[in-house]
Amino acid sequence: MHSLRSRFILSHLLPVLIIVPLFGLVLLYLLETQVLLANATDELVAQAELIAEVANTQPGVWRDPQVAQEYVRVIARRVQVEVLIMNPAGVLLAASDPAYTTYYGQVLDFPEKETVLAQKQPVPISGADMTGVAVPAMGAGDEVLGMVQVTNDLSNVTARFGRLRQVLLIVLAAELLLGAAIGLFLALNLERPLQRVTKAIYGVGTGESAPIPAEGPTEIKQLAEAFNLLVNRLHLLEEARRRLLANLVHELGRPLGALRSAIYSLRSGGDEEPAFRRELLAGMAAEIDRMSPMLDDLSRLHEQVLGSLSLERQETDPLAWLATTLAPWREAAQRQGLHWETALPAELPPVLIDRNRLGQAVGNLLSNALKYTRPGGTISVAAGQQEGEIWFRISDTGPGITPADQERIFEPFVRGEQQSRFPQGLGLGLTIARDMVQAHDGRLTLDSTPGRGSQFTIFLPL
């Protein structure tokens, strides 16, 4: 009984093995005691009364033992019961059973005799192995002429239940077979999806994970759906890992190649010319500076994965905070030959924010806008208030984002087409910005049209 199938079959057979025999015994007992014996008693009463009435029509039956014996001999050929005929004093006159021959002329003392004579009504007689009735024979003047006792052996009564017991055993055997078949059918329907899930789980361990159909009972379907969700999550993580490695190779390969070339030039005697040496060192420093944001992004992503990202919220004037946050980016935009525009209201209600964390989110959005907007383009920053929220919108006139990229733009390590918007970077900036905003119970939305630029809007609850 170690397998689920055997236990499931046993669970269907146990009720049959326990309940059906008990029910059958109770049913047989009730039929024997309440139905058959009662019917047998009623039948015996009717037979005894009929025998007494017929005896009244036979002269001498209640006085002459020979007449009584002849009458009983005739009756015994027509009924399957034992008949005793007694006078009012209880003296045995005749009996259908030869064993009573020695008692002829003697008084038969039985407890029901006085009751019959006193009540002048049929009285049931019961014993360990027999059932019967004693009936008074009444004369014309309500006089008791005698008594007729009719008895029947219980073995004859219970013999009628033989076929009923056979039917009960057949029904029990059929129910056992039916219960085993139903249990096997249900067990197989339960076992197959469980085996499928178990096999699929082993497949995950060997690297052969694949979704499985959600079939079977509701709980098994939920288990399959949970497994499919896990497999899908594993596929996403594996895809993210591959993208991370590919992006790291790409992003680290270029600056490291430039640094290697500069170092080679310096070691080959390039440091003899001060101007050339300063130019190489400046280029090396610039490449290192370009690598620093990438490491910062990886560090922030690591914090979020470990769940160690915490906020130090402070009540903040959003306009004052925004002015401080935007100042360096405004200068950077102007150095790149971009137009800088702001549309800020006269006042906004204070908000409870982590100034540094939310500043990172705004910085990532502005960094993307500056990085992918060509000289002569425009960077716009706006703010406002609506229905319990304040919002900050950062717009650019860059190449925009295709609809296909917009669906996945906030996923880690996702970059758009190389020629459009995301030619470099690890693809973490927008992911980090979104997570920072969500940590503030806010949301980050995107509205972009290819060729017309993009708008990223941060919504924060008041």
Note the main attributes of this structure.
462 residues, alpha+beta, Beta-Lactamase, Helix Hairpins, Heat Shock Protein 90, 3 domains, five-stranded antiparallel beta sheet, five-stranded mixed beta sheet, rod-shaped
Would you kindly provide a written description of the structure presented here, covering whatever features stand out?
- It is a single chain.
- Mean pLDDT is 77; it is low at 418-423.
- This protein has 462 residues and is an alpha+beta fold.
- It has a five-stranded antiparallel sheet with strand order 2-1-5-4-3, sandwiched between helices. Strands 7-9-10-12-11 form a five-stranded mixed sheet. It has a two-stranded antiparallel ribbon with strand order 6-8.
- It contains eleven helices and twelve strands.
- It has three domains: 4-162, PAS domain (Beta-Lactamase, 2-Layer Sandwich); 212-309, Helix Hairpins; 314-461, Heat Shock Protein 90, CATH 3.30.565.10.
